[in-house]
Amino acid sequence: MPALDSVRLNPTDSIVILTGAGISQESGLDTFRCAGGIWSKVDLEDVATPQGFARDPDLVHRFYNDRRRGLLDPAIQPNAAHAALAALERGWRGNLLLVTQNIDDLHERAGSTAPLHMHGELLKAVCLRCGTVSDCRDDLSVHDLCLSCGRKGGMRPDVVWFGEMPHHMDRIQAALEDCDLFLSIGTSGHVYPAAGFVAEARAGGAHTVELNLEPSEGVSRFDAAIHGPATALVPAFVA
Ligand code: BV8
Description:
Elements (H helix, E strand, L loop, with lengths): L14 E5 L2 H4 L18 H4 L2 H6 L1 H15 L8 H12 L4 E5 L5 H5 L5 E2 L2 E8 L5 E3 L19 E5 L9 H10 L2 E5 L11 H7 L3 E6 L11 E4 L2 H9 L1
Parallel strand pairs: 1-2, 1-7, 2-3, 7-8, 8-9
Antiparallel strand pairs: 4-5, 4-6
Helix pairs in contact: 5-9, 7-8
The structure holds ligand BV8.
Ligand BV8 binds next to helix 1.
Keywords: Cytoplasm, Metal-binding, NAD, Transferase, Zinc
Protein name: NAD-dependent protein deacylase
GO cellular component, one term: cytoplasm
């Protein structure tokens, strides 16, 4: 695999950046599949599928209420990797699309202006009755009324569960086809369709780079990779 120093950032190029839970790990948010991660503590079938929500909505609300309270803890702050991507965006003259699998708001709080949350947002809720999406910073429950339609029992986290179509896919795929550089940061490459983005970018002629703590499941599909903590790698890469 070529060394990373073969990659030069040209600020008029078109770049797609994909982030995963690893970019928020050093801010204090758990990842999913690392040792002791979220999926080692709860079965994703019970809390991250529509079937799980239909079976036991209180369990799913408790799962996301706990994570929402955790995210809103003042100790949880964006880290140097989030800040480096926001700084890159400010100086970038080409197209830059930041796509995140994360449902936290750390990219926004670091200054990124328009990250695409393909798996939704923990601080938003959606009404199953009328489809209205609203801000959500408090606990949700089956007893909540929708402030738009006034009906009860339909509020759920605005999060994409397994078997549900991720958000913004048309826009993401168009950007992958046209980009010059695809940069993947802090993701295991386990969950699709995000894990397939590297192949789509390469097919469009992009140079593809992985920055991750350890080789991801898709590392062999990248042109270049460097492994270590995001707060060390990302600022150095974008400098
Ligand atoms: C869909 C809910 C279709 C939100 C999540 C092929 C094609 C299409 C679909 C599939 C397919 N094969 C299988 C599927 C189905 C499924 C899937 O991928 N299953 C997996 C288990 C195989 N995909 C889906 O269901 C998707 N939907 O395809 O719909 C469709 C079509 C038509 C009509 C309707 C539907 C939906 C996927 C989204 C599911 N929701 N979560 C939430 O609660 O957060 S997925 C979950 O995994 C999270 O969202 C998370 O973002 C995502 C990916 O995980 P990562 O971010 O990568 O986190 P992970 O812990 O795995 O890895 C962290 C990495 O960071 C590690 O590599 C680690 O080394 C690194 N790291 C750690 N610390 C650091 C670090 N790196 C740097 N620095 C550090 N300090």
